[in-house]
Write a structure and sequence with these properties.
It is a single chain. The protein is elongated and about 90 Å long. The protein has 13 helices and 12 strands. By secondary structure, the chain is an alpha/beta fold. The two termini are about 20 Å apart. One of its GO terms (molecular function) is DNA binding.
């Protein structure tokens, strides 16, 4: 997955101040994507269509002051954005008001030293990154350990969490990607609107049922389906399913699950992988008759009577849900 650069928006009604900010942070152009806006109403409109990680704004502006502008932005933006307010007034009351009303990340007085503003922006980006990596340590650890590919997004499909399996699916399928804004984007034209609507509904309506969206691209070797479902807190979970990707449990897992000997576990796994009794005998270096005797013991220990039932039993154990670290 390509690296997503942080996006910073600077808002100030003074053109000279914006020019100064451009000069000060021109050395950061390789690390950040930056936008500059002199009108707060236009800045609000810009945020309706684009995501910014950090918004740096003047407090005293016409039409909307910084606190009012941030309030408008927060009403339709996700909670990932951090806000930094600048003011020429060293007014403690304004600072408290800004923090209480908008949850502003930092309040800095003008003139503000460039190194102080840079430090505030970097701290804000660090806070955002920390939340993305640890949206709930126990939940994150559980998702990371799962073999199924899972992404958690907000109502605008902005990625909040992506486990390793999901990242691997995106590397092998052209139908889905994370764009430069950190949005889970669909490349399949016929499915794009369906997917976006499923995510929006799952985020807004926690009682809605799961929706299934095909994301297969003609150039993909494997089919890909997304299952979109609500998880609460204005979030949706997207599970990616690829037919045939689930492997049978390991030999060690079958020994633990069913009390099989190692040879019996090898035979059971070979059959669950689509092999025959003959190929299982070859794997274990035993005669065909001996392999059939082992198979009867496997039936007794697992409680099944036919090979098809054995295959179904093995492939529906919870072991494939656990992500392999081999």
């Amino acid at each position: 997955m390509s690296e997503i650069r942080p996006r910073i928006l600077f808002v100030d009604d003074e053109a000279l101040m914006l020019s100064s900010l451009r000069r000060v942070f021109r050395t950061r152009r390789e690390e950040w994507e930056m936008a500059f806006e002199s009108e707060p109403l236009k800045a609000v409109e810009l945020c309706r269509n684009e995501h910014f990680d950090v918004i740096v704004s003047d407090l005293r502006m016409p039409d909307l002051n910084g606190i009012e502008m941030i309030g408008e932005m927060k009403s339709h933006r996700d909670a990932e954005t951090e806000y930094i307010l600048l003011t020429g007034n060293a007014d403690l009351a304004s600072a408290i008001d800004a923090i209480n009303k908008t949850g502003v990340f930092r309040f800095l007085t003008k003139p503000c030293a460039s190194e102080n503003l840079l430090e505030a922006i970097e701290l804000a980006l660090t806070a955002i990154e920390s939340r993305r990596e640890h949206p709930g340590n126990m939940a994150t650890a559980a998702l990371s350990a799962m073999s199924p590919a899972v992404a958690v997004v907000d109502g605008r499909s902005r990625v909040i969490y992506l486990n390793e399996s999901a990242d691997e699916v995106m590397k092998s399928h052209k139908g889905i990607l994370v764009d430069r804004n950190g949005v889970l984007a669909v490349n399949v034209s016929g499915a794009r609107g369906h997917f976006q609507e499923a995510v929006r509904k799952a985020a807004d309506e926690p009682d809605t049922g799961p929706k299934f969206v095909s994301l297969s691209d003609p150039e993909d070797c494997e089919a890909l389906t997304a299952v979109v479902m609500p998880v609460g807190q204005k979030r949706a979970a997207v599970l990616f399913t690829v037919p045939g990707r689930t492997a049978p449990p390991s030999v060690e897992s079958l020994v633990d699950l069913f009390g099989l000997t190692r040879v019996e576990a090898v035979i059971a796994r070979t059959i669950a992988s689509g092999g025959t009794v003959e190929s299982a005998a070859c794997d274990c270096k035993v005669t065909l008759e001996t392999a059939r005797t082992y198979l009867k013991r496997i039936f007794q220990k697992t409680g099944v009577r036919r090979q098809v039932d054995l295959v179904q039993l093995i492939l529906t154990t919870p072991v494939p849900l656990v992500r392999s670290r081999m």
